[in-house]
Specification:
By secondary structure, this protein is α+β, with helices and mostly antiparallel strands. Helices cover about 30% and strands about 30% of the residues. Helix 1 packs across helix 2.
Length: about 200
């Protein structure tokens, strides 16, 4: 296995990450504009990946968007803004989030703290701890770390679903030429009741 350097956020930084994601979604949906992070907290200058997930609180709480990257290319503040906009667009779940949906969205942000390239996914993968990214033959797909716990998936099913998302055969994760990256992070999420932001560590 090979690991990337860890990044850690305080609770206050995490709460601000969720706030920034919310501001970015609302600016994009209401005005078609890209929110600027402005004067960022020190932690937001770290170069690390981030994912933003949008879930409806109506009915069964269906997924309305999920986007992001685990790469270290952008500063965290900009990574959050970009992920939030993509999650709210029709590039994510097939339909753009509308203004009437904003009040019924629950927004969560996963800030990547560590990535691990593994050659033994079943042995190294911990459900509820790791997200998964699959790369093979120019195809790429990733899945949010909380998904297997929420859906009661096994390790093999989680890996297979990540392969299908990458438009690969469900057993592609077993192939030697397939790169499997495990993603750890901190998840910060809005509460449905409007209370303080919830914090989870997937480490």
């Amino acid at each position: 296995m090979s690991e990337a350097q860890a990044v850690r956020l305080s609770y206050e930084d995490g709460a601000r990450a969720v706030e920034l994601a919310r501001e970015s979604v609302e600016s994009f949906v209401r005005h078609g504009q890209r929110e600027q992070p402005g004067s960022m907290r020190d932690a937001f200058y770290n170069r690390t990946g981030a994912f933003v997930r949008l879930q409806s609180t109506r009915g069964r709480g269906r997924l309305r968007g999920c986007a992001g990257t685990y790469s270290e290319g952008d500063q965290l503040g900009h990574a959050i803004v970009d992920a939030a906009i993509t999650a709210a667009s029709d590039d994510s779940c097939g339909s753009e989030v509308g203004p009437k949906e904003l009040d019924s969205l629950q927004i969560s942000v996963c800030v990547v703290s560590r990535t691990t390239l593994t050659d033994d996914p079943i042995a190294d993968l911990e459900l509820g701890v790791h997200g998964v990214a699959i790369d093979a033959g120019g195809n790429h797909g990733w899945m949010y770390p909380m998904l297997p716990v929420e859906n009661d998936w096994s390790e093999a099913e989680f890996l297979s679903r990540a392969c299908r998302k990458a438009q690969l055969p469900p057993t592609a994760w077993q192939d030697d030429e397939t790169m499997v990256t495990l993603i750890e992070g901190q998840v910060f999420r809005e509460r449905e009741d409007g209370g303080a932001v919830e914090a989870f560590s997937t480490e």
